[in-house]
Amino acid sequence: MRAAQIDRFGEPDVLKINEVDRPDPGEGEVLVLVESSSVNGHDVIVRSGGLKMVSGRKFPLGTGLDFAGVVVATCPGVDGYRAGDRVWGTVHPRGRHVTGAAAEYVTVPAGRIALAPAGISLSDAASLVVAGTTALIALRDSTRLTSGERVLVRGAAGGVGTAAVQLAHAMGGHVTALARDRYAPALAGLGADRVLGYDAGAEQTGSFDVIVDTVGSDLECHRRRLTRNGRMVTVGLSAFALAAIGLSTVHGSRRIRTFSANPDSALLEDLAGYVASGALRAVVNSVFPLAEIAAAHQAFSRGGILGKHVIAVAA
Ligand SMILES: NC(=O)c1ccc[n+]([C@@H]2O[C@H](COP(=O)([O-])OP(=O)(O)OC[C@H]3O[C@@H](n4cnc5c(N)ncnc54)[C@H](OP(=O)(O)O)[C@@H]3O)[C@@H](O)[C@H]2O)c1
Predict the structure, then answer these.
(1) Which protein residues touch ligand 1 with a CB less than 6 Å away?
(2) Burial (CB count within 10 angstroms: exposed 0-12, middle 13-18, buried 19+), residue 231
(3) Nearest CA owner, ligand 1 atom 18
(4) Does residue 307 sit in the same domain as residue 235?
(5) Claim to verify: residue 164 and residue 231 sit in the same structural domain
(6) For 88, which of 110, 116, 188, 208 could close a Cys bridge (C-beta 3.0–4.6 Å)?
(7) Among residues 213, 241, 257, which one ends one of the domains?
(8) What's the structural domain count of the chain?
(9) Atom of ligand 1 nearest to the CA of 237
(10) 21 Cα: distance to centroid of ligand 1 (angstroms)
(11) Alpha-carbon distances, residue 132 vs 9, 140, 221 (angstroms)
(12) How far is the centre of ligand 1, averaged over its atoms, from the C-alpha of 81 (Å)?
């Protein structure tokens, strides 16, 4: 089968499409024919060698975390799935396989997948797996947004941001989105009540009960916009972000929270519910064939877009 792999850390041009053996599923695992994957920040950091503790240094190394596809086979210990099911999920970042999700087939434990939402393409589904579950954890589990609260989504035009705007709106939040001016109409269409530029000051934005940051910079400056019982979470991790998170613990419940998303079946089922109800839709900027995955990584790092880059593996 074809799989995107790297044989050293570096710029996007280290990504190659190799012919590799199809993986065999083990007990409790499912073999999935991948239709689409997407590009996430994690892939870019792993590719450039910034996460060696997680990725290891053994080459060739696969790339891609999330996928949507069709079940080909199930092994003993798997209940609830059969060949032909449309599923979405993630491979484990420390998985035992040299292929990531940007490959024609993946094997995954059944606990890492769920039925993909009906009514959307597998391409759109793939764009929502990591971004959507991350936004859901940020709003529901980390900051516990409740209806009527004021929410700020920073980096609102990105993968996590476009999902967070929609989910915050669906949860009854009054949503302020920080993004480039040109995306104001699109973000209003996703449920943002206000869209302000990156550099909007506190006097313009006001204060917030919940802040979801997807950028990872200037965290303390944004934290000051929290109300007395406000909660803030950042998912855009950097050395600066970690320092700000550590220092913020002196502020008790108004500390800056973070997490590393590792979606299980239950979370994916909950996300599918938002899609099924029409509250969450995919925002796909572009679809790259697997052979052009290096260009997809370049486009992701260039930024300046609305939504996600999808990798069409089956094309
Ligand atoms: N912790 C977790 O579990 C987890 C899960 C998923 C993602 N992540 C991380 O979360 C981050 C966001 O992921 P993503 O997939 O949403 O990335 P993304 O699609 O690149 O979105 C990031 C957004 O932030 C915007 N942005 C950049 N600088 C900004 C600034 N100073 N002020 C306001 N907005 C700014 C970008 O806009 P422009 O490109 O137009 O500048 C872009 O729209 C990444 O670092 C990713 O690695 C973490």
Answers:
(1) 40-42, 130-131, 134, 154-155, 157-161, 178, 180, 198, 214-217, 235-237, 259-261, 303-304
(2) buried
(3) 158
(4) no
(5) yes
(6) 116
(7) 257
(8) 2
(9) 45
(10) 34
(11) 28, 12, 26
(12) 34
**CB count, 10 Å around CB of 285?**
17
Please state whether the predicted TM-score (pTM) of the whole model is above 0.90: yes
Domain holding 106, by residue range, is 2-127+262-312
Domain CATH for 48: 3.90.180.10
CATH of the domain at 200: 3.40.50.720
**Ligand 1 center to residue 7 CA distance, Å?**
27
Provide the residue-wise pLDDT of the chain in tens; the chain has 315 residues.
Answer: 999 999 999 999 999 999 999 999 999 999 999 999 999 999 999 999 998 888 888 899 999 999 999 999 999 999 999 999 999 999 987 665 567 999 999 999 999 999 999 999 999 999 999 999 999 999 999 999 999 999 999 999 999 999 999 999 999 999 999 999 999 999 999 999 999 998 888 888 899 999 999 999 999 999 999 999 999 999 997 878 888 899 999 888 899 999 999 999 999 999 999 999 999 999 999 999 999 999 999 999 999 999 999 999 997
Ligand 1 atom closest to the Cα of residue 216 is 45
Backbone angles phi, psi at 59, to 5 degrees: -110, 155
Longest dimension (CA), the chain: 59
For residues 141 and 285, state if they share a domain.
no
* Helices 159-170, 122-136: crossing angle, 10 deg rounding: 70
Instruction: Output the residue whose Cα is nearest ligand 1's atom 11.
Output: 236
Q: How far is the CA of 26 from the centre of ligand 1 (A)?
A: 35
Whose tokens are 């975390």? That residue is: 65
